[in-house]
């Protein structure tokens, strides 16, 4: 899919937004989970401190010890990750769990408020970091009151392990959610862009001559675009009609003078001035050819739609007309046209193309002209052939070469081919000239079917 695609751009933007939102949500969930775990573990540590305080015993010297063991077996396992410690604030003597073995908890040298829970992040055995809760309490002993600092710590690696496990599960869940959201976004974008596809189909129908205006049910956001396109088509239709009217006026304006000029040439010929008469006829014919060419150019420049035109009736009409001409009476016409062939072109343009090529073939043929039309999906190929002398290979390249003025060739063939090339260029086609199997010239071109 092209990066210029609006659907692709919207999908990429939606995907980036979804991943960003889910990444932020995932990070927030992990942080909230970590805080929840720390609060839950902190509650357990506070419970252990209360249990230690409740089981506190003192000997006759005032030394502290516990009455029995705490329920959690990790306190009895060396370096298990769960530790407790009792510190005499005055004598700095320690009583600690077996799990601490030969180490102690390095509590901060501060004086927390009595009875309050203080939270510390302390170094522990073997380089571990401990989440530690501490509480200062006053106890009555045989030697009087003592202030003891009770601390319970747990290795933060346990918290990190829970956090990592939760993060992995959350990541998997969020990736699955991202996939669902991206799919939903794609569907939403496709549904949202569907009206544009309807507009595109409408424009294609206009270009194909199936309709003259956009008549699609679109959302109100796109309705102004449809209205503007229809307004533009109205303006273009009026401009086309004005151009056709001007072309018709020009044709009628030149028709009478040229007819009079040809009549004068005939009178001169009758009086014996044949050279002057022939020159006038050639000039008038050349003028008529140039006028027809410019009128054709004007008409095709203002042609917007191309309806489907059936080929066979057009060909039969041209054959019937040519057979009534003086040169056509001696020609045998053959056609080889596949059934139900239609092309996307104006009927007048197809008449212009085939008419000029057939006239040129009739003019040079010895006795036979053949027209073939066959489907070569998605186009229709036409071949107009004659059994005349043809055109030399070098000349064929010259008259069909890019930038050559076809009207500079001999009168009759040159202007006809020039008009054909102009019309074909409008439809994106190209005229090619080759030697025919009949011995003369084969003119070929293709149009959209």
For the structure shown, list the relevant keywords:
449 residues; alpha+beta; Heat Shock Protein 90; 8 helices
Provide a descriptive summary of the structure in words:
By secondary structure, the chain is α+β, with helices and mostly antiparallel strands. It has three domains: 1-207, no CATH class; 213-304; 308-448, Heat Shock Protein 90 (2-Layer Sandwich), CATH 3.30.565.10. It is built from eight helices and 14 strands. The strands form four sheets. It has a five-stranded antiparallel sheet. Strands 9-11-12-14-13 form a five-stranded mixed sheet. The longest helix is centred in the middle third of the chain and has 52 residues, at 156-207. 22% of the residues are buried. The model is unreliable at 401-413 (pLDDT under 50).
Helix-residue proportion: 40-55%
Structural class: alpha+beta
How many separate helices?
Answer: 8
Detail the poorly predicted runs.
401-413
Itemize the secondary structure elements and their pairings.
Elements: H1 6-54, E1 56-58, E2 64-66, E3 82-88, E4 94-96, E5 117-123, E6 129-141, E7 144-155, H2 156-207, H3 223-270, H4 274-301, E8 308-310, H5 311-323, E9 332-337, E10 342-344, H6 347-364, E11 368-376, E12 379-386, H7 393-400, H8 413-426, E13 432-435, E14 441-448
Parallel strand pairs: 9-11
Antiparallel strand pairs: 1-2, 3-4, 3-7, 5-6, 6-7, 8-10, 11-12, 12-14, 13-14
Helix pairs in contact: 1-2, 3-4, 4-8, 5-6, 6-8
